[in-house]
Amino acid sequence: MELTQLLAMDRLGLTPLVGPAPDSPAVRGVYTTDLPDPGRYLDGGELVLTSTTWYREPRDADVFVAALSGAGVAALVAGTAGLGVLPDALAEACARHGLTLLTVGDDISFAALTETVLAALGGGQHRAPSAGLHRGLVTSMASGAGAEGLVDVFARATGVWCAVLSATGRPRAGSVPEVTGHQLARAHRDALAAGGFPAVRTLPGGGELTLFPVQSPVAHRPPAGYLAASGDHRAWAPGVADAAWEVCALLALDKAAAQERRRIEARFLREAVDLLRAGQEEPAEARLRGLGLDPGAPLSALYLSTTGGPYGPELAATVLEDVADLVPGCSVPIPLSDGADGAYLMLVPDRGDDSGAAEAAERLAPLLGDGRAALGTGSPGVGAAGLRRSLEEARGAHRVAALGTGTVRTAGAGALSSHLLLIAAVPDDVRRLYRDRLIGVVERYDAEHGSELVATLTAFLDASGSWQRCAEQLHVHVNTLRYRLQRVEQLTGHSLATLRDRVDFCLALSIDAAGRAHASRVTSESGTA
Asked: Hey, what CATH class is 428-522 in?
């Protein structure tokens, strides 16, 4: 297709800023990119689409345009989504290199432009891959281009745009036109909830995505990531889905190499933590510096454990690895050296916003299924002594978090002044025995009679023993409240008139996460005696 034919399509709204030269190549394909130097991925004759997010200074425009001109592309179409306005340096560079520069209106998407041009060229949106695709993928991998290079080669050969997502659904490389990072993350969560891959998800504004899993190099871990590709893989041309699986296999190899680097770093971090706990401060600080961590700057310890769900304890490591990639200055995660808590430890730089813990908590929930997570953080510490204190605080906070309610339970150093820390230090079997001896009899009475004695007791203690305030919160008469609590006293042999017995009840109820969640519902409802 000649450029003049393309410009004659009024519905595309293309406007020349640097007019086509008489010897401009014909358009033979479409290629979308925001790489600063995409020359190695171009064969010539492409209509190159870019949102100019690569632009930072005038020199960037010359590098980008020189790469396109050297590859013999047909023209450049620049959108303003990235910068809001096209830089003058871009038009100047196109004029110097003799490259046609076109703009497109904001009401025309790159996806619509691509479909129109490919349809005019006589092809569909998805093309059967050529025999050279495998060679191109392997060459890209060998060149060190990583995930970005792989998806570029795949998209150029097949017409299927795709993005690489991390294990928690965070976009890492590539893009799908008109699909935001939020939409990709939502499609990832929906696919996990539905189960089974490859998964086809329908986007809110129409269109579809297919998610392919990238195999983890570590046993029992969630997939190392996902390839999110435009369209339904069942409607693609023959061979395209096989090529997508090949991209996933190469992404898995790339992840395995990164995992090996993490394994080496984890060994040195474990040594540093063991030295800190042994009081050998100087060698511990030296190990931390060797890992790129500054012991002279505030660092916080973070403990995370996951139980149940589809992945069990290994999910904690996967999520923390993603956080380490996202939050600058984090260490690699390591399992606790004694394995007592089944938790993973990571050191996080103090940024005043608890960003590491917040990121971990946010990314955990979609992957947990019916599992649970406990996350504890220590206060920021400087130097070996401060970091050793943060490690102790994080471990204690993690034990407190494990007693909490909800899917992802968190606790910080402030929780260490709570009675929950003392409960967390007691062995599980002792906690269960203590609670059952005091509250179990009341629970069994509730189950047999359909009463709400445990919930009423909880509400009374939460109201600090105020009969009137508790009755108002439960929407019952004070006499009804007194009758219920007298029954509790008869069943347990404990008196709510004494502070000691009230403390016993408070401690026992703190052990019962399910009971506390139930009680919080009852306090807002009217009950029956």
From this structure: mainly alpha
